[in-house]
Amino acid sequence: MKEIKSIRLKDVATAAGVDASTASRVLNNEAGHRVAAETRDRVLAAAEELGYRPNVMARALRTARSHTLGIAVPQLDNPVFAQIIIGATTAAQARGYELLISLVEQVAGGGGVYNRLAHASRVDGLLVATLDEEASLKRTLAGTGLPYVLVNRKLRGVPNYVVHDNFEAARASTEFLLSLGHRRIGHLAGRISGYNGSQRLAGYQAALKAAGIDPDPTLVSEAGYTMDGGFRATQVMLAAKKRPTAILAATVMSGSGALKALHAAGVRVPEDMSVMTIHDLPISEMLQPPLTAMRFPLQEMGIVAANGLIDLLEGKAETVACVLPHEGLIVRASTASPRARSARA
Amino acid sequence: MKEIKSIRLKDVATAAGVDASTASRVLNNEAGHRVAAETRDRVLAAAEELGYRPNVMARALRTARSHTLGIAVPQLDNPVFAQIIIGATTAAQARGYELLISLVEQVAGGGGVYNRLAHASRVDGLLVATLDEEASLKRTLAGTGLPYVLVNRKLRGVPNYVVHDNFEAARASTEFLLSLGHRRIGHLAGRISGYNGSQRLAGYQAALKAAGIDPDPTLVSEAGYTMDGGFRATQVMLAAKKRPTAILAATVMSGSGALKALHAAGVRVPEDMSVMTIHDLPISEMLQPPLTAMRFPLQEMGIVAANGLIDLLEGKAETVACVLPHEGLIVRASTASPRARSARA
DNA sequence: TTGAAAGCGCTAACAG
DNA sequence: CTGTTAGCGCTTTCAA
Predict the structure, then answer these.
(1) Which CATH number goes with the domain that contains A151?
(2) Contacts of A145 in chain B (CB under 8 A)
(3) Nucleic acid strand C within 7 Å of B19 CB
(4) What pLDDT shows up at residue A114?
């Protein structure tokens, strides 16, 4: 079935009337230094003519560089990670690298995946976007001996990371709700123990304080990153004595859960309650009403991370530390001024 | 940075007091034939002890098999493909293969991707879920000389494919709407020229005919696989003289667009109009109202395809042709009997 | 049953 | 500037 004999470097060399090593030099030497222009052209022409493709395996074996990046993500059926992967793939391919995707589903995670990739010399470096517990993750990654860049999270003592400016995004979002006239603003937080969740919570609190409002802890509820979490946390908020007039959800998932809970309780959005989320996804627009959102550059996160890792690998950078700013507010129908002061409660 | 010296086969052999070739035999021989039990145990113990991982590149170079599968998809930020990939990854890893993902975005596609993967000997075979035009895709794939399995589509003359039973799913969905009492059922079709779209349309028509209803062509509209397509197609249906009382959308995306259009027009769901979709996704539950859906086994499609391709590669199968049945109806709040005969139009 | 030897396709000293 | 040589880690005849 696989009888298409692929042309080897030697074939190109023969066709050009030179030795394989010379052909190799021509095809690899970036600076194009140590080879005669005329020879170079002949080799290049032959390679082109024959449609030469270097055998990646052989090259990798020889150089101990596979030109492959690994990316470890906790889920694939999550638009956030899907977008990051799209960006990373694009950037990697543009620089001649391939991307190997690994699902690391269990939060506990016995770094099997990382080791499999590393020790088999499959990948040159790792993009890590998993949710593993901090200490064991650091240990595992160190154990692989591979360079790695954290994506969408930060870890103490790890110099290489790409994250969003969660603090500022949450701060600006809250400020927007304040500007509409809201005073009691609820927050469906993410994982408060995690980087993203804690930063967003802090930004939310900072905005309130800046407006002279003392953050009310009963208005904050850890809803995680699921619809269900948002649903339940919102129900609790609705049952409280003093309801908020607006909700800032840390993510689209929990925001959609909030919408569901509000709908079930007969609370109109945005008349009785404004809702907005951090992150803007295609579904934001499909929901009823469409959700106002603070947008983050998701694909760019993948691009920056992949490029950073490649820079690391190629010695073009010592460290990759990047905090990406948000892309601004997308105002949709789910937010309004708190006119109707009297909810039904 | 990469100073962790990985142990080679030779190290294991030395530790076990045998030659590398013997160690290789032990570690590879499936039947465990031609080696002394005692020697075998010693080698296995040594490998275990040292935590030996074969160098994939070296093995690939020698055997001309990379133990890597390629999967070409048109989008990643589409739950359908995400699920397929999850299934394929899982199955591949379980059998010792890795999965390389390629985005082939352009419908026209100059098979660059396929060739890059094939000629560089990166992958042993291809899972193809792209939307490329039929003739050129077949030509390109043949050109790679690689075995491949079509996923979620069929092509004349290509013996290897895994698809869903689109016809039956659409037929059963339509039958369900009929059983609720609907007689005028609209269909938001996918790409009618494509395999999935045409099959679903045919199933829809078959159910109507079986119920003694002559399919009304004005009730069918090609909406594609986007929210926008569904939105527009639904608007057209609403403007028609005789509206349907129910809509069967070929996909969740177009179904959500339908919901949007209905909402904008003040048509209540399900009181004035029932809506259901083929495919069930997480967002189906987030929408308002949650959408009744005919569920397909998406991950399983990836699993079956990956296993089939590996069987092909390992000579365990001559051909992979599989039509997966649907997983049944998920009835939610978007469908009901057509009580309110008088819509407002 | 096991070891010796060759070589997959490529790159990187080292000569010339 | 270019050819010769060696070898990355592994599998696979071929002998012993």
Answers:
(1) 3.40.50.2300
(2) 1-4
(3) yes
(4) 74
Give A16-27 pLDDT, tens digit per residue. 999 999 999 999
Instruction: Report residues of chain B scoring pLDDT below 70.
Output: 1-5, 30-33, 105-112, 115, 118-119, 340-345
- Residue of A3, A50, A56 to mutate, interface with B, max B Cβ within 10 Å: A56
- Tell if the CB–CB gap between A98 and B122 is shorter than 8 Å: yes
Residue of B53, B101, B227 with shortest CB distance to A99? B101
Nearest CB neighbour to B55, from listed A98, A101, A121: A121
Least confident of A21-35, A50-64, B129-143: A21-35
Q: Is residue A60 part of a domain?
A: no
Chain A residue with Cα closest to B57 = A57
Q: Among residues B30, B32, B26, which one has the least CA distance to residue B12?
A: B26
Same domain? For B199 and B227 the reply is yes
List bases in chain D with any atom under 7 Å of a protein Cβ. Answer: 1-5, 7-13
Going from the C-alpha of B265 to that of each of B16, B18, B273, the distances in angstroms are: 77, 79, 12
What CA–CA distance (Å, rounded) separates B151 from B295?
17
Distance CA A8, CA A100 (A): 25
Contact residues on chain A for B144, CB-CB shorter than 8 A: 4
Residue B21 belongs to domain with CATH number: 1.10.260.40
Total CB pairs under 8 A between chain A and B = 132
Is B314 among the domain residues? no
Name the percent of chain A lying above pLDDT 90. Answer: 76
Longest dimension (CA), chain B: 88
Tell me how close the Cα of B79 comes to any Cα of chain A, in angstroms: 6
Buried b (16+ CB within 10 A) or exposed e, B84-97: bbbbbbbbbbeeeb
The nt closest to A10 (CA vs C1′) is: C9
B chain contacts of residue A2, beta-carbon cutoff 8 Å: 64, 145-147
Kindly indicate the confidence band of residue A32, based on its pLDDT and cuts at 50, 70 and 90.
low
Q: Evaluate if pTM is beyond 0.85.
A: yes
B66 beta carbon < 7 A from strand D? no
Total domains in chain B come to 3
Considering only A183-197, A210-224, B19-33, which range has the smallest mean pLDDT?
Answer: B19-33
Is the same domain home to B176 and B207? yes
DSSP secondary structure letter of residue A17: T
d(CA B128, CA B143): 14
Residue A70's domain spans which residues?
A: 66-159
A94 inside domain: yes
Would you say residue B313 lies in a domain? no
- Given this model, what pLDDT does residue A303 score? 98
Nearby residues of B258 by Cβ (< 8 Å), 6 or more positions away: B188, B230, B231, B233, B234, B247, B249, B275
